[in-house]
């Protein structure tokens, strides 16, 4: 047996897959879709944040129409700022403070009574939250991520999902980064973890079309 050390292949192409390739139960995780945040990013092919939020709301509606589970995650901080910790070591500017303008959930994405809303204090939706418990309650094996920001919450949530042995699927046209370079770098880093991690909205809607309709 060879003892030669072989490093994983570097990611040089990060176009989204046209196929979802899900394994087991699938849960859509919607992260930090507040009414304010990064507005534009050419790499995502989106004109504005408003456009992305509206398209995300359409996807949530499509999941609900097939009775497929959706979990909402929002980063919110207390007005005392004591729960920020080292989160302010980048530019020192508080964000997502409860009661502040722009921290409310985008109006088209209000959770229903039977959907979970999880509050987080760090970039990762797993860190210090009950997300893993909720996903295991749904018997999830594959999680689909949409939201803000590609280079922060989406990236770190994807890493923790990988460490928890979930299959990751990030809808690359429904996430927005701090800028184009950071957006692309985060997508490359996520694909480095799992080769099928990046998908398009069409890949997800095509998969949803294969599910039976909601029974009344």
TrEMBL record:
<feature type="domain" description="Isochorismatase-like">
    <location>
        <begin position="28"/>
        <end position="194"/>
    </location>
</feature>
<dbReference type="Pfam" id="PF00857">
    <property type="entry name" value="Isochorismatase"/>
</dbReference>
<keyword id="KW-0378">Hydrolase</keyword>
<dbReference type="InterPro" id="IPR050272">
    <property type="entry name" value="Isochorismatase-like_hydrls"/>
</dbReference>
<dbReference type="InterPro" id="IPR036380">
    <property type="entry name" value="Isochorismatase-like_sf"/>
</dbReference>
<dbReference type="InterPro" id="IPR000868">
    <property type="entry name" value="Isochorismatase-like_dom"/>
</dbReference>
<protein>
    <submittedName>
        <fullName>Nicotinamidase-related amidase</fullName>
    </submittedName>
</protein>
<dbReference type="GO" id="GO:0016787">
    <property type="term" value="F:hydrolase activity"/>
</dbReference>
